[in-house]
Amino acid sequence: MRVLFALAMLLSVSSMYAQTPEEKLKSLNIVLPAPSSPVANYVKFVRTGNLVFLSGHGPSKADGSYITGKLGRDLSIEEGYAAARQTGISLLATLKAAVGDLSKVKRIVKVLGMVNGTDSFIDQPKVINGFSDLMVAVFGDKGKHARSAVGMASLPMNMAVEIEMVVEIED
Fold first, then answer.
1. Structural domains present in the chain
2. Residue 6 CB partners (closer than 8 Å, separation 6+)
3. Which of 62, 65, 166, 79 is nearest to 117 (CA)?
4. d(Cα 95, Cα 104) in Å, to the nearest integer?
5. Closest Cα to residue 52, out of 61, 44, 41?
6. What is the predicted pLDDT for the residue at 49?
7. 31, 89, 98, 160: which has the fewest Cβ within 10 Å?
């Protein structure tokens, strides 16, 4: 009985300190940028029901340029991982603009990660882990998602990665 009481108290105390996604971003020293405008004839997101579909985003830097190059030639796996993480930050900025509060995220449902790589580059999953690890850091279990990580012969503007995602939200 004491063990159950102690466990209940521990869970109660830990839930008092549960961080919101915005608090987790702050603790990670991440400031979401203003969402960028689409580079062609499309919208950055579409909401239907409780789902938000986010268009492909790239690893945009503060000056508006992108992290560019081919994995396996111009960039290491670690640099690709950082590019995928940066892409995740851009996607979170657009998601926040779409739903107003990241606490509304019920689940990151599906992710498509595209990696600009050489013909022989085979570590796409290691690169896209930069995105996936960020989603889990920000949302916990709600950030775990189904995912595809694929190689591409090229990406727009020679971006290192492009990632799109589907998110379920609560009303």
1. 19-169 (3.30.1330.40)
2. none
3. 79
4. 10
5. 44
6. 97
7. 31
